[in-house]
UniProtKB/TrEMBL annotation:
An individual GO BP term: thiamine diphosphate biosynthetic process
EC number: 2.5.1.3
Gene Ontology MF annotations: magnesium ion binding; thiamine-phosphate diphosphorylase activity
NCBIfam families found in the cross-reference section: PRK00043.2-3, thiE
Cited function: Condenses 4-methyl-5-(beta-hydroxyethyl)thiazole monophosphate (THZ-P) and 2-methyl-4-amino-5-hydroxymethyl pyrimidine pyrophosphate (HMP-PP) to form thiamine monophosphate (TMP).
Origin species: Phocaeicola massiliensis B84634 = Timone 84634 = DSM 17679 = JCM 13223
Alphabetized Gene3D superfamilies for the sequence: Aldolase class I
Keywords for the protein's UniProt record, in alphabetical order: Magnesium, Metal-binding, Thiamine biosynthesis, Transferase
Record note on cofactor: Binds 1 Mg(2+) ion per subunit.
Annotated residues for binding of 4-amino-2-methyl-5-(diphosphooxymethyl)pyrimidine: 34-38, 66, 105, 134
GO cellular component, one term: cytoplasm
Name of the protein described by the UniProt record: Thiamine-phosphate synthase
Position of the signal peptide: none
Length: 212
């Protein structure tokens, strides 16, 4: 699995389609794209996924899909992201085998441990703060939440990439990275920027500094 500094999560807005949103993140240098189309029929997700998969291949980017394990297997996407209400990670691992990436959502250390034991490859950990991009948010973690989860992981000897998510903006990134997480997953802050391509570049550059 390539190191994940920034994962972009697609979002449909008044200005941009799912595809446009991913194009801009890729053009700005992001090399991890997650197709997230809540409430769309799987046939629509498949159409969009096939287009994005080609685009990600052109950019040499990792391409994962939110929720749809069978679709990931069918089209050979790079992986899937699964939350608490989705297929359990262990079941997805049985279906997909070891060559696909499986991410799991965590809000607590116990969630991290469960996904680790079930064979997840990385954790999407959040929300950092309130966001309108996702409904039914879990409790807000803030910086202290990440510090606590990272420290409990160290104590337990659990080594798994942790990607912080939820309401994160450019200004938040240095302090979030300083808690010991591996990377950041973003949607809204890139899409709300005047120039999402430039905003992605700006973010990639601070993350590089923080990862030296
Ligand atoms: C990187 C990353 N982290 C968390 C999530 C949230 O997944 P989930 O809990 O399944 O919620 P939905 O995205 O399905 O609404 C994610 N998608 N990506
Ligand atoms: C999918 C997801 N899971 C927790 S918060 C979130 C949305 C993140 O998007 P944004 O960066 O717009 O808050
Ligand atoms: Mg989900």
């Amino acid at each position: 699995m390539r190191p994940m500094v920034l994962q972009f999560i697609t979002h449909f807005t008044d200005s941009y389609s799912y595809y446009d949103s991913a194009c801009m993140a890729l053009e700005g240098g992001c090399r991890w794209i997650q197709l997230r189309m809540k409430d769309a029929p799987v046939s629509e997700v498949e159409q969009e996924a096939l287009r994005l998969q080609h685009l990600c291949r052109d950019y040499g980017a990792t391409f994962i899909i939110d929720d749809h394990v069978e679709l990931v297997k069918k089209i050979h996407a790079d992986g899937v992201h699964l939350g608490k209400k989705d297929m359990p990670v262990a079941e997805a691992r049985k279906m997909l085998g070891k060559d696909f990436i499986i991410g799991g959502t965590a809000n607590t250390f116990e969630d991290v441990k469960m996904h680790y034991e079930a064979g997840a490859d990385y954790i999407g950990c959040g929300p950092f703060r309130f966001t309108t991009t996702k409904k039914n948010l879990s409790p807000i973690l803030g910086l202290e939440g990440y510090r606590s989860i990272v420290s409990q992981m160290k104590e337990a000897g659990i080594h798994l990439p942790i990607v912080a998510i939820g309401g994160i903006t450019f200004e938040d990134i240095p302090s979030i990275m300083a808690t010991g997480v591996t990377g950041i997953a973003l949607s809204g802050t890139i899409l709300r920027a005047d120039n999402p391509i430039e905003e992605t570049r700006r973010i990639i550059n601070i993350e590089k500094i923080n990862n030296k």
